[in-house]
Amino acid sequence: MIGILSAGIAPGLALLSYFYLKDQYETEPVFTVFKTFLFGALLVFPIAFIQHVLKTEYQFESSFFNAFLSAGMLEEFIKWFILFYAVYQHVDFDEPYDGIVYGASVSLGFASLENIFYLISYGLEHAVGRALLPVSSHALFGVIMGYYIGKGKFSSTAKWKWLGLSFAFPVILHGTYDFILITQENWLLLMFPFMIFLWWLGLRKVKKARELSARHIESQLFY
């Protein structure tokens, strides 16, 4: 069990540490980041319950529904809700890059507990594949969500446009990820380029968020 717990949580913590250490200005309090990670982990239970109800009571057979609504929209909305209502107004969220940290944190909390349950059910031999695909993809969905939330919070114009994108863009990406898994027999042929694109996009958002933070810090110094 210790091996499963370690293998289940290690990829999430490693990815969170990577994005956390990319914060080149005021690093976020570890307690606040951990609390956000814990919130994300707790989301597994209500999401699993709602998905179970949708599957057993309504019995939707559509691959599009299962990928984009049951998985993509539901999971990303609840993560977005936590970010917006529990983190967005927090005093520690004081520069654009912080959105990346908290977005990755809530997503990786969710992905880590989900990963532990999966490994308990199906075995430790799936640990590497889970780390490379579901855990990494959740981290990147969170990074992209956090980038637009951070941009929205510190933008003087079009605030709600950025907040809308912070929800819509991860839903589309998450839905696409699940749709590939559900509908493609040789899904690795599409998943491999999709994950390359997702990493490219996520790291690009990290770079842009750091640039936004640099400009924000400079403007504060000369205010």
From TrEMBL:
It is found in: Cell membrane. GO terms for cellular component: plasma membrane. It is a multi-pass membrane protein. It comes from the Bacteria. One of its GO terms (molecular function) is metallopeptidase activity. The keyword Lyase does not apply. One of its GO terms (biological process) is proteolysis. Keywords: Cell membrane, Hydrolase, Membrane, Metalloprotease, Protease, Transmembrane, Transmembrane helix. It is an enzyme of class 3 (hydrolase). Pfam families: PrsW-protease. The chain crosses the membrane at residues 6-21, 33-54, 66-88, 100-120, 132-150, 162-180, 186-203. InterPro entries: Peptidase_PrsW_arch/bac, PrsW. Its EC number is 3.4.-.-. Its main location: membrane. Belongs to the protease PrsW family. Involved in the degradation of specific anti-sigma factors. This is Protease PrsW.
